[in-house]
Every structure is written in structure tokens, then in C-alpha cells.
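Troubleshooting entry. The earlier prediction with WTA gave an output that would not parse, so I re-checked the input for stray whitespace and re-submitted. Clean input:
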Amino acid sequence: MRKDANTVSDSKTLDNLSTETRSFAPSKNFSDQAIATQARYDAANADRLGYWADQARQVLTWDTDFTETLDWSQAPVAKWFVGGKLNAAYNALDRHVENGLGDRVAIYFEGEPGDTRTYTYAQLTEEVKKAANAFESLGVAKGDRVAVYLPMIPEAVITMLACARIGAIHSVVFGGFSADALRSRIDDADAKLVVTADGTWRRGKPSPLKPAVDEALSAPGHTVQNVLVVKRNGEPTEFGSLDKWWDDVVGAASTEHTAVAHDSEHPLFVLYTSGTTGKPKGIVHTTGGFLTQGAVTHRDTFDLHPETDVFWCTADIGWVTGHSYVTYAPLINGATQVIYEGTPDTPHQGRWWELVEKYGVTILYTAPTAIRTFMKWGREIPDGYDLSSLRVLGSVGEPINPEAWMWYRDVIGTNNGKNGERKEHPTPIVDTWWQTETGAHMIAPLPGVTATKPGSAQVAVPGIAIDVVDEAGESVANGQGGFLVIREPWPAMLRGIWGDMDRYKETYWSRYENMYFAGDGAKKDADGDIWLLGRVDDVMNVSGHRLSTTEIESSLVAHPYVAEAAVVGAKDDTTGEAVVAFVILQTVPAEGEDVVATLRNHVGKDIGPIAKPKHVLVVPELPKTRSGKIMRRLLKDVAEGREVGDATTLSDSTVMSQIAQSMGK
Ligand code: WTA
């Protein structure tokens, strides 16, 4: 991207499918007790909409039953469970208490410093009622937007559910995002309330959050009327006119609050995610469909037995996985879950496995990047803990390489105690493909049915219509690759982009007629199973976090030193992809200034530390086609240390050798 110019890039080429051929059928022991059997596929195949209607009535309690399962007349905007009314928080909380499950543990919270809190369903219900009353006392009403900028602490879940209870729309902003990123999200959604904390703990040290909120709100022109601050790390915190302590406001609120039912299509939340342009998209999800598919997939993909299982999804609340599989689905299903605030290596690299042992975690849901990090740290660490409680292992966020999949199975999934005993039947591994936009699992094995393959998410969830198509939109044959599409609307689908329905249609529904374009490359193997191959657009995936090349390029060219920038995602052994930036400078920095550090920090401040390029390479030119498109494919070759591919369409054929020279090659 050039200063003041918009350049479009060429799309990535699809990787080759690995030649993985192993497959592991479920053990009879597991299948015999599995919640989901072949009958799920049969029912969904026989009558897709009827299946979803049945499921919606099974997993949720409706205040008013729906009269129509799907209204697709305004396609591509769907209405699911039309006419139905329900309250999300009532479904996650009150009804379990009414059903005699008030004493069941909903959340085991473990703070990074080792402090713990346990909430039963009865206690969590009370906390959410108090927060709902408190938010209402601050003037938050149905339909208002609430920005949530919190660490992984129970108040994050309480805040989200309190919003849902009163019909306010939460917009959670990941705590790792910068003040600028927070402000742009507050502005886009016109948030009325911000809920934050003084800070959190990171690697044994207090890490502040509140100053970023102060900075975000320092410029006038925002819509925020109050800032509620949870006291978490107890660091000194400056207070301004909008600020109030959570304890003062929520602590004083009544524990009586009656949940009113909202329409099935009432918006539940907005969650911003990176797209192919510089501006993040506010993905809108509504109530009935999102909760139905979240709960159904949580139950079936993970074989959830809520009376006995202890579920732990390690995702932060700032990402969709934390929305669907921390806040909503586990509680809708009446499950017991673990929430951990900190990093996996604090105070030691065995912390996660210590938590699995301590809480008897039975289902662990995490990301390939974490698994690869544990591989690097060595198997001796998990081998030193008793992981015998585990019975299902999940993966999400990026393609899992077969090596990491096998390690997950062999090291974590067969651990049967500290004495080195191994399980006779390794725990099944479920690789789950989905997106912020899809709201819930779309491709995933059923652990009691599917013979799983290392590295493949394999099969559509019952009731979901997935396909891989070619450029023309034709279904590809087995053994062929193409683009992942969704052929039929699904309950948890996004209902649009906040404030920009045209962009919604353009981004997802214009590439092919009547098919949702996911932006992922995929292949069907000889059995027709689906292997995900990564993004085909300008979205990168770093440690399972979506980042936009364009957004980082915009940030770089906004710096006075930079004339032009091109960003690519380069393969990385731990994080999947790493951000690599190529920049052309227009100003010569001061003698002795580390320009690379300056630019990395600039992006970190602008977007957030996760967006900081791993490498910034200063180059004299960027490779472009005659029409001015940056050929990222060639830069990717450079970034990944490969021989540079076909460069015949370059407008200036010497550019690549100039780049190589500037890098000292
Ligand atoms: C990628 C995260 C391969 C994919 C839930 C998708 C995956 C993007 C997988 C969505 C998986 C997620 N295998 N790729 N199991 N899961 N992805 O919105 O490229 O943060 O389009 O949602 O992550 O990322 P998002």
C-alpha cells in the first residue's frame, strides 16, 4: 500500500494437500456412551430445517415458541426461529437453578497469581441479576451498546450475560488491543457504557487496562456516559468524571431481576473482526439461532455430559471462541467450566496441566499454536501431571498440522497419570472449523462416530451444508481443491455487519450466487473429507488471531518514515503465520535510530501488540504487476526463505533482485 493510494493484492495460491493417510476410529467404549450418534446425521439429512427446529426446542427454553424455522425471503439476511421469544441469560442461568441445579459449579476461576473463585449456577445467577440492575441504573436499555474491555475474569462473563439479560448489545474488545482500536470500536457501535478493569496479571506482573480506556475517551465526540471499573490487580488507578467502581455500583444492586423475553432475532452482540480492508467489521449475531447452534455443537462435538464433565476452553473472551464456547454454550448446557486468567508459562510451563489435574478437566478446547508451543517446551512437562481425566480434546483457530495433532493425541490424550501409565484408548481429537461469522462449529467430527484424521476437520456438522467449489462455483471432485463455501443458511450465521449491510453482501455473498464465501481454501480428500488450507484473501492468522494485511499496511504508511508498505503472513512453526512487513522509507531516520523497532512499536500502539510485525524489512522497491497490484506471493517467498516463484508479470523485472540485495543475499 502506498501513502494515499489503494492497491489490491493478488490472492494467495493454495498450498498442497499433505499426504496424511492415518485415521483413528472411535473406540467402542467411547461410542457406546456418546451423546451424538449417526442418528444426528440421519435426522438432519432427512429434514434439515425440522432437525434444527427440534434442536432449538431441545436445548433452549422458549418464552414464546417460534412459528417458522427459517425465513430466507430477505436473503442473504436470515431470520431463524421466527416469532420465538426467549432470554439468553435466563437460558444460561435461571432455568438451571429452577431445575434444581443451583448448587452445580458453573465456573471455576483461577487467576494468574493463583487466587481462585468458584461460582455455582445459583451464585452466578445472582451476580448477573445484580449487574443487570446496575447497568439499568446507569441508563443502559434494550438495544444500547456496551463496550467490554476486560481480562479473562468472571466479570467478563457476568457483564456479557447481564447485557443479554436486559437486551443490551455487548461489543467485547480484546484486552490486547490498543486505545485507538478500542476507540474506533466504541465509535462504530456508539457505545453508551464501557466495562473495564484496573488491569490484569501477565507473567507475574500487573498489566494495566484502564489507562487505554482513558486514552481512548480522551478525545471528545464519543457517546460513552459511564465507565465501570472492576478492581482486579489493585494498582493505583486514575478516576475521571465518567468512572465508577464496579464494586460500588454492582455491589450495591439488588439480586432481584426478572428477565424479559426478547425476540429470537434480537441482536445479542457485535464482535469486530479483521477483514480484507483496513476497517474491522462489526459482526452481528442474534439470539435464538446463535444460542441453538452453539449449544448443540458444544454438546455433540465435545460429547458433553453436563453432570460429570469439566470443560475448559482456553480462548480469551475477546474472540468469538470465548463468546460461543465460554460465555454462552457451556452455560446454556448447564456445564461446569474452568476459566483461567493468565499465560500458560506462569509461574511455570506446566501451569495448564496443573489446572487440568487440579480441576479434573475432562474436555480441553484450545488452539494449534498453543499445542506447538507445548511441543517446543517438551513432553516431560505434561508427562509430570495426571491428565487421566481428559476424554475429549478440541482444536480451533487455524489448520492443525498432523504433527501437532499426533502430539496432542500421544502426549496429552494418552496420559493416564504421573506414573507414566498410558490410556488404552487415546482421547478423540476434534478439529473444529468455523469463524466469527459462522458463530459456531461448522466442520467437525462427531467423536463417537467419525474416524478422525490428523490435520483434517473433515465433515460438516449435522444440519450444515458445506462444499468446496472451483472458481466457477462448481463443486470439486474428491481429491481436488478450491474454495470453501456454505450452501445453505445456518442458525448461528451472522446477520450482517454493524451499520454496513452492503459490505456484508459484498464480502460474503457476491463471489458466488446463493453461497456464502468463507475466504478459506480447502480440499476434499479421496473420501470426500475436508482439509482446510488457510485463507485465500488478505487475512492472516497469527496464533489463531485474525489480522488484516491491509490494516497493518495502513498503520505503517501512516507513519511519517514510510512511503509504501506490503505485509504478508509467513509460515511460522509456532504461531502458524507471522507478520512480515516490507517497507519503503521516504524519510531517513535520525542517526542511530532503530527504525525497525520504531515501526514495530508504532503498529503495536496503533492496533495492538499481536499485530506487531515479527520482521520489518526495509526495501528499495516492492514487486508490482503492470496494473499496480503488489505481488504478495513473491514477498511471501522471500519471507519464507524460498526460491522466488514466477515473476514474469512484474512491471519491473529487477525488483526482486533489488530486494534480495537489500537483504544481503
Ligand atoms: C481459520 C475462529 C483451519 C480459518 C473460530 C477461518 C481454521 C478463520 C480452523 C476464522 C480450523 C478457524 N482449521 N482453519 N479448525 N478454525 N480457522 O473468525 O481461516 O477468529 O476463516 O474464528 O480461522 O477465524 P475467527
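This one parsed fine. Confidence is low (pLDDT under 50) at residues 5-17.
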